[in-house]
Design goal:
The chain is an alpha+beta fold and about 500 residues long. The chain has a 5-stranded antiparallel sheet. The longest helix is centred in the middle third of the chain and has 32 residues.
């Protein structure tokens, strides 16, 4: 590659990225999910548009897997465990039993109405059986939805990609003809449990390192944090477990710990997640051939309708009724099951194996995702109001940042006092912090102040504390309680 070709490549890539960023702005204003605009960009750049050739299914799958791992790591990192914990069992049930129910019901209807053979019907159904993390995170987090409902769907979307991938991989492989159902179930269980364990173990080890090592630049902490999640992803794949679940589990653990420069890390990983999402959908759009889409219309509509209006609602009802979940929340949970990158990514697996009708299956899934995301995504705000699952946005949460003090087994903890919290007006000297946590200064209007007995906190104040590492989590929890409930009465 000559320098001129390199410059053209960089110019083209950055131009596409800037168009993608503009598409995010457009989608946030119109309510249209950004993934549709990114797919459209890919189609316009492809052979039927500007003529860029791209038909490497294996490369597309490999790159897509890495990008989805980044998206899942970000999704886990930005998910509050306190919100996820009450609905974790429900999310896990929807991600496992719910996926199996969706596959079975959708495949049965596809055989009845389209006359498909069993293998093709299961493949198409499994590809679209999981809710997509990228689509769910990008859409639901813009809506004022009750935390338990939003976290249920987000948790499901983080957990259910591995089961869908396992089903598709097994059906595509020789195990379809040679393996027993028990062996397939055992393989799937190993991948799920193994992926979760790898993710948690690697994240716990990484947390210990990050909290004890003082790096020369704050910008190194975000790189190290993301690298830990991707190490979990890679190790999970190496041992035959689910690397994607390992990445999500690692992100979930790290995001809920008192890590150094947490806010900086969150912003960095979120930026990379946007880059991954834009690149992922543009690449998948490049892989599609518009000339093959008309033939995919009928099967896409039949399978999508079977999933959206029959299989998905039934799976939600069967999985959530034992938890006495209100029917309105069940209805919204069903409608919020968006499809996106993962179904299209899974549709590249048959391409890598040269399976019969692989091209046809890819375009069926591609069109299905476009049509039903266009149907469901923009109507989610209306559906949330109709189902009564909206709520007023909570006051600004307390946001912490910390940096280690090397050799002292302690760190400097910082927080900004937000408006509309009970911290405002509290006496600094009277804050009931754990013994050992010391408030060293308060920065107010860029002036550094030493706290005295009369100083009271004001909105926008920056408190700086020296805290032993062993008390970091306890100190943050105590400050969050003070922000929500205020100081206890004397």
């Amino acid at each position: 590659m000559t320098s001129e070709q390199l410059n053209l490549l960089v110019l083209s890539a950055c131009g596409v990225l800037l168009i993608g960023v503009a598409a995010v702005r457009l989608s946030s204003r119109s309510g249209m999910p950004g993934l549709l605009l990114f797919l459209a960009i890919g189609l316009l750049l492809g052979e039927s548009g500007l003529g860029i050739p791209f038909d490497d299914g294996q490369l597309a799958y490999n790159v897509a897997t890495i990008m989805v791992a980044v998206l899942l790591a970000n999704g886990g990192f930005t998910t509050s465990w306190s919100n996820l914990k009450p609905v974790a069992l429900r999310s896990g049930l929807m991600a496992s039993v719910g996926v199996l129910l969706s596959v079975g019901i959708t495949a049965t209807l596809a055989i009845l109405f389209l006359g498909l053979d069993l293998r093709t019907a299961i493949l198409l159904s499994a590809m679209v059986s999981s809710t997509d993390a990228a689509a769910v995170f990008s859409v639901l987090r813009r809506l004022p939805i009750k935390a338990r409902v939003r976290t249920l769907v987000e948790g499901e979307s983080g957990f259910n990609d591995p089961p869908a991938i396992i089903i598709v991989t097994v059906v595509v492989s020789d195990a379809w003809n040679e393996g027993s159902i028990l062996a397939m179930f055992g393989t799937g269980l190993y991948q799920l449990v193994g992926g979760a364990i790898v993710g948690l173990v690697i994240a716990r080890l990484g947390q210990g390192i990050l909290q004890r090592v003082s790096l020369p630049s704050s910008g190194l902490y975000p790189l190290a944090t993301l690298s830990i999640a991707m190490v979990a992803f890679a190790l999970g794949g190496i041992i035959g477990a689910s690397g994607l679940l390992a990445a999500y589990a690692a992100g979930l653990w790290l995001g809920n710990q008192a890590l150094p420069h947490h806010r900086t890390t969150e912003g960095f990983i979120d930026s990379l997640a946007w880059l991954a999402e834009i690149g992922l959908f543009v690449m998948l759009g490049l892989l599609a051939s518009p000339s093959m889409l008309p033939a995919a219309i009928v099967p896409a509509l039949v399978i999508g309708s079977a999933l959206t209006f029959v299989a998905r609602p039934l799976s939600v009802i069967l999985c959530m009724t034992p938890f006495r979940m209100p029917w309105r929340e069940q209805a919204f949970t069903s409608w919020a099951g968006l499809r996106g990158a993962v179904p299209i990514m899974l549709a590249t697996i048959p391409l890598t194996q040269d399976l019969p009708r692989a091209d046809e299956m890819f375009h069926i899934i591609f069109l299905l995702v476009v049509v039903f995301t266009l149907l469901q995504g923009p109507t989610l705000p209306w559906a949330a109001k109709l189902a009564g699952v909206t709520e007023e946005l909570a006051p600004t949460d307390v946001s912490f940042d910390s940096s280690p003090m090397e050799g002292l087994d302690s760190c400097m903890l910082q927080l900004e006092v937000p408006e509309n919290t009970q911290l405002v007006g509290l006496r600094v000297a009277g804050l009931p912090l754990p013994a050992g946590a010391v408030i060293s200064m308060v920065i107010r209007n860029k002036a550094i102040l030493v706290p005295d007995d009369e100083m009271r906190l004001e909105p926008g104040d920056h408190m700086v504390m020296a805290v032993p590492n062993r008390l970091l989590g306890t100190t943050q929890d105590r400050l969050e309680q003070l922000a929500e409930h205020g100081a206890p009465a004397d």
